[in-house]
Design a protein that fits this description.
By secondary structure, the chain is α/β, with parallel strands linked by helices. It contains five helices and seven strands. The protein is about 30% helix and about 20% strand.
Length: about 180
């Protein structure tokens, strides 16, 4: 019987780790301007103590503002290693660990049933991919706030265009309710 040495295990480590990285990246990282983050949370009518999930949370700015300014219990889901670490460092630096957290994982493998509010800044095709999961898990009355891109087959309760925020373009925020 052949023995595995540490060196041979290290050579195989990338193969063993592949199963955990099969998750699909649903959008490139493009940070939402702070003014738009605040507007999204206002349009979503986020209240203290409500459970908010940010799908594809990037550097954590929506989660952090939801916890800090709106007093929500905020959770982000982020697949990218560096963005996950950056957002968790920022949460720790601001002392928000009790009300803000990031799950380092796949958006499709989470339970959103406790959510009061869901925020997303994903591509249109990605919104369509996660829509069945949200339809299955979200309770009646859950608010979904989407930055710039609609969910097909859902009728927005509110659509608000925010003119140039200083970066040279306008933003559209869609509010849906299950």
């Amino acid at each position: 019987m052949r023995r595995l040495t540490l060196a041979s295990l290290l050579l195989w480590a990338p193969v063993f780790g592949q199963d955990t990285k099969e998750a699909e990246k649903l959008a490139p990282y493009y940070p939402t301007p702070e003014s738009i983050v605040e507007k999204m949370l206002q349009i979503g009518d986020v209240k203290p103590g409500e459970k908010l999930f940010d799908l594809g949370s990037g550097d954590g700015r929506i989660v952090i503002m939801a916890a800090k300014k709106f007093k929500a219990d905020a959770t982000g889901i982020e697949l990218d290693d560096d963005l996950y670490k950056r957002s968790m460092d920022s949460i720790r630096e601001q002392g928000l660990q009790r009300t803000a957290r990031i799950i380092h994982g796949d958006i499709f493998k989470q339970d959103y049933s406790p959510a009061s509010v869901i925020t997303v800044y994903l591509l249109p095709s990605s919104n369509d991919k996660i829509r069945p999961l949200l339809e299955k898990q979200l309770k009646k009355g859950t608010r979904i706030v989407s930055h710039d891109f609609q969910f097909s087959d859902w009728k927005a309760e509110k659509v608000e265009t925010v003119e140039d925020d200083g970066e040279g373009r306008s933003h559209t925020i869609y509010l849906y309710r299950r």
